Each structure stands twice: as structure tokens, then as C-alpha cells.
Amino acid sequence: MTAPLRFKRVLLKPLAELDQQAWRRIHAHFRDPEIAYLNGTAPNRMPLWLLKRILKADSRRPDRMTFGIFDELGAYIGTIELYDMHQDEATLGIIIGERTHWNRGYGPEAIHALLKHAFKDLGLQRVKLSTFADNLRAQEAFKKVGFIEMRRLKTPAGRTDVQMQINRNAWLLRPQTDRQRAAEL
Angle at the Cα of 66 (from 62 to 71), degrees rounded to 5? Predict the structure, then answer.
């Protein structure tokens, strides 16, 4: 079991440690039409008990780590995960589902906490992701942490998929202040 991860205002808790209130928020996020659109899916219509069972089963897979994201007041605000972990790379996914926390820096902080774990604790060399070209907020969050765009591809649905990545060396060498370095130690 992975211990909670922290960076600045956010705390990442393993999915298995989430309480019923957090699960209700996950359920609401997965049902939200705007969030579903940004993720390229239809709004989820599963009952909470089934969604919880499926997500918990997925989180136990050896190629996946899923965390709930909590703000500085302890409120659940979203999920973040590494999946398709093979050899020295993984794919990152994140949902900041609480609109009150959009455009306030929580996404980059959660990503930073997970990348620190990925590169320092798990020994990964590369983390990649995909987002849609019309999801500018997500692209900005990823760039703040150091992800670079690799390519853009048209999807069968007519949207443009933006593929980004960051490697361990680039993450370790990224510019940061002495205060940021101290916070990481």
C-alpha cells in the first residue's frame, strides 16, 4: 500500500482509503457531462456501488496507481492516476472535478506530487498523457509541470488528441526556486 503523497496544498490518498463522501463526489464527477466531454466519454450512468466496485478493482491492478486528490482543508476535489505502467514508463490521468478548484493551481500541484513519486520512488523514466486540443486548461496545467507536446492526432470522432510527455531527467532539471526544492525534500 502506498502512503499518501503531499505537495504544497494537495494530499493524494490511495483510492482504497477514500471515505463514502469522497466516493459520492467521484460518482458526481463521472456523471458530469462537461467532465465526460473533456475526457472523451459519455457521462457515466452506473450506480455508485458498481462504479466503486469497478474503480477499486482497477486500482488493485499491478500496472495502475489511483489516488484521490484532497485540498488543504481536507476536501476531496478529484482523482489522479498512473496507468499502463510497464518497465520504466506510465500514462497519467487526472480529473479535478470540483469546479470551485478549477484554474487555481490544484491540478499542477497534484501532478507534481504524483511525478515526484513516479520518478523518485518508482524509478520511472517517462510519463506520458493525452488530452484534447480544446482542453486548454489541462494543457496549461501539464506545461506548468514540465510536460512537452509530442504530437497532435485527429481522432475518429473528429477531435484532436494532444499527446504530451515528460521524462525523469527533464523533471529533475526543471527550473525551480530554492523554496520549491526545499518543499520537495
Answer: 160
Q: What is the CATH number of the domain that holds 86?
A: 3.40.630.30
Query: Whole-angstrom Cα distance, residue 83 to residue 164?
Result: 15
Q: What is the pLDDT of residues 52-94, one digit of tens each?
A: 999 999 888 999 999 999 999 999 999 999 999 999 999 999 9
Q: Which amino acid is at 173?
A: L
Instruction: Kindly report the pTM of this predicted structure.
Output: 0.89
Question: Do 114 and 163 meet the contact criterion of CB atoms below 8 Å apart?
Answer: no
Amino acid symbol at 62:
P
Number of domains in the chain: 1
How many CA within 13 A on the CB side of residue 131?
23
* Spatial distance between the Cα atoms of 149 and 98, rounded to a whole number of angstroms: 26
Residue 152 belongs to what domain range?
5-184
